[in-house]
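Q: For a teaching handout, I want to show students what a protein-ligand complex looks like in C-alpha cell form. Below are the inputs, and the small molecule is magnesium ion. Please produce the holo structure.
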Amino acid sequence: MPPEKINSVAAFPVTFRPGRYAGLTGNQVVRGFFGGNAIVSVVVLGLITLFLLREGHGFFGQNRRNLEIYRAAGLEFVDILKRQEEGFGSLNRTLFEIRLAAGREKEPGSPMATAAELEAFDAYASELGDAAGPLRELVGELVETASAIKTKLVMNEDRLAERQHLLATGRQSEAGSIRIETIDSEAELRPLLESRARHSAISGSLAKSLVELSERMPSMSAPELQVLLGEFGELLRDYVASFPGIERQLAEWRHDREVSIFSAITAFLFGREWLTASFWQDWYGVLPLVTGSFLISLIALGLAVPLGVGAAVYVNQIARPSERSAIKPCIEFISAIPSVVLGFFGIAVLGEALRKVSHIAWLEWIPGFPIAERLNALTAGCLLGLIAVPIIFSLAEDALQNVPKSFKEASLALGASRIQTVVRIILPAGISGIISAVLLGLGRVIGETMVVLLCAGNRIAIPDFSAGPGVMTQPVHTMTGIIAQEMGEVVQGGIHYRALFAVGILLFCLSLMINLTAQRILGRYRLLSS
Amino acid sequence: MPVMDSSNTDLRIRTSMPAFASPVDIHQAPRALIEIENLDFHYGPHKVLHEISLQIPERQVTAFIGPSGCGKSTLLRCLNRMNDLIDGARVGAGRISIRGIDIHRSDVDVIELRKRLGMVFQKSNPFPKSIYENVAYGLRIQGVRDRSRLDEAVERSLQGAGLWDEVKDRLHTSGLGLSGGQQQRLCIARTIAVEPEIILMDEPCSALDPIATAKIEELIKELRSKFTIVIVTHNMQQAARCSDLTAFFYLGRLVEFSPTRTIFMNPVNPQTEAYVSGRFG
Ligand SMILES: Nc1ncnc2c1ncn2[C@@H]1O[C@H](COP(=O)(O)OP(=O)(O)O)[C@@H](O)[C@H]1O
Ligand SMILES: [Mg+2]
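A: Here is the structure, written as C-alpha cells, with magnesium ion included.
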C-alpha cells in the first residue's frame, strides 16, 4: 500500500465520541432496553408461578381439614351405609329395565311376556322394593344426625377462624367475646356408633329376604327375558355377598383416625368426584376434569395431526410455489380467529350439525351415534383441532424445511417416487421436529379455555369409557373450563377458591412438562441435523 | 404416477427402451449411448446452455470440465431429468436421447429413467439411516423384501465401491458416522446397488482430501468396465487421470470434445488450450 494511503487512514477521526444519555452511551441504552425486555418476561413468568403457588398451596391443608371434618362428623360412617342403600337402588333399576323390556312387543301383536307373567313380576318387584324399607329409614335418620354434627363442627371452625383473625389484628376484647364450644365428639357420635347393632339386624333380615327372593325368581317364557333375569339373580347374590364386608367396615371405622396430608393430595389428584356447594360433603377430585381435558385433546389431536402434518407435507414437498404461497397464509390465518368466535360457531352450527348427522338412520353404526347432547367432547374437540392445525402445520413445515434438500435429491435420483421419498426419507428425518410440533399443539389445546367452556357440555363426571369410541360424544368438563366457570362465584381464600388454584397449578405443570418435552426433542433434533 | 410392473425386472421405460443389460463387446468400437443434439436449456428467463451437441459412448469415462457457472452441472442434471424439480427450468430446443429414446418425451417414465442413471452428488449425502439401509434403499423402494437378496446386493455394492472391508463389521451403524471419503463411497455403493447403466458424478471429490480423492479416482477406473460414467470435475488433473473423453464447456457452450489425451496435449481450440494450461478459469 502506498504510504500516503496510510496517512489518510490515520487522519480518519477514530476518537469519535458517542452521545451520552443519563450517563450511558447509546450502545448501553440499546443493550439495556432489549436486555430489560428479556428480563421482564422472565420475571413475569416467575411471578406468575409464585402467585399460583401462593394461592394454591393452601388448598391441601384446607382439603385435609375438610376430610377431617368429614370423618369427625361421621359423614364417612354414614356414607358406608349410603353405599349399601345405593347398591340396592341399582338392583331396583335393573329390575325396572327388565320390566320395560318385558312390556315391549317382539313384533307388533306379539308381546314379550303374557299378562299373567307381568302381574307376577310386578308383585315380585314391589316385594323386593319393600325389603329395603328399614335400611332406608336408618340411613335417613343417620344422615340427619351426621349433618347436625357437621354443622356444629363447621360453625365452631368458623368462630375459631374469626377469633384468630381478630387476635391477629389486635382486637383482643372482641376476640374474647367469641365463645368457642367444646364439642365432645364421642358423645355426639354415640347415636351413630350405637346404630351398628340395629344396622346389623336390619342387614341380616334384608339378606335373608333377598336370598329367599333370589330363590323364587319370577318365571318368564321369553328366552331373552330369562337371560336378563339370570343376570339379575347374579347381581342379587353378589349384593348380598357384600354385606359382611360392609359390617366389617362399620365395625372398624374410627372417627379420630388421622387424615394425612398425603391423602388430602391423593383425594385431589385421584378423586373421582368434583362436587361443590353440596349439602352433604364437598369433594375436590380433579380426575373428571383431567380426563375431560385429555379426552378433548385426544380428539383434537386426532383431527389436527393428520390435517396439520398432511398439509405441511403437501406444502413443503409437493405443492408448486404458487400453491404454497396461497395455502400457507390461509392455514396460518386460522390462528387469528378469536376462540370465542369458534365457540359461537361450535354452539350455533357445529354442535347442532353433528347431532343432526348423528340422527341419520344409516349412520347409527358409528359408535356414539346418535348423539344425545348437542354440546359434547366431540364438538369441542373438533374446534380445538382446528385451533391446533396452524401450530402443528407451521412447526411441522419448519421441521420438513430443515431436512436437507440433498436427502430428497438423493432419493429421487435413485428412482424413488415423491411419495416414497416423503414417507421413507423426509418424514423419518423430520420426525422429531414433527413430534415436538404435535406436543406444542397439545400444549395449546390443553390450555384453551373459551371453546371448551362453550362447547364441551360442562358435565362434571368421568366420561363412561365402557362406551368405547362412543365416549367421545359425551359431555365433559375440563380443567380450564372449571376455573373460568367457577372462579367468579367463589369466596376468596375459601377452600373452593384454593381448589381452583390447585387445578391451575396442575394445568401449569402439565403444560410446562409438555413444552419442556417438546423443546428437548427439538433440541436433540437440531443437534442431529446440523 | 405410472404403475410399475414389479415382475418386470429388465427395468424398461414405459415405451420400448431396449433392454438394459444388452451384451456389449468391450473390444468393439464404443458407440454413442447418450446423444445430445442442439440442446438449449433455460432457467426461467436465463438461457444457460446453448446448442450443445455431444455423443457420450458406452463404458467410457467422459469428463465435463470448464470454469464454474458454465453449465456442466446443468447438463449433467438434464441427463436424468433432475432439473424437472426446479421451477421454471426447461429445455428450450434440441433433444437428449439414450439408446435412441428421447428422454423428454411425454411417455417416458422419469422414475424408470432415474433408476438407469445413477447420480453421485458433489456433497456426499447419505441418508440418516444405517449403512446397510442406505445401500438397500434403492432396492427397497423397488419393492425388494427378500432379505438374502438385499444382503447379497449390499455386500456386492459395498465391495464394488471399495468400502466393504472398512464397514462390514458395522453395517447397522449410521451412515453419517463415516468419514467424508467413506460417505462418498457409500453414496456410490448406494447408486450401483440398483444396477444403473450410467453413473453421473457431479464433482464427487471436490469436498474430499487428496487420499480420499485418490481412492475415488481408483474406483472410477474400476467401475468403468461395468458402467458408463459421466463426471463433472473442476480438477483438470482428475479429468486427465481418470477420463477417456473430455468435454470443455465455456459460458454455456461446448467448446471442444475429444479424447482426453487430445484435449490436454494438443487442443484444437485456443480457449481450451488456455483453460487446460491454467491461464484462466
Ligand atoms: N436452480 C437454478 N436456478 C437458476 N439458475 C441456475 C440454477 N442453477 C444454476 N443456475 C445458473 O445456471 C448457470 C450454470 O450453472 P451450473 O450448471 O451449476 O454451472 P457449473 O456446474 O458449471 O458450475 C449458472 O449461471 C447458474 O447461475
Ligand atoms: Mg456445478
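A: Two things your students might notice: Strands of chain A lie at 20-21, 24-25, 105-107, 110-111, 274-275, 283-284. The radius of gyration of chain A is 33 Å.
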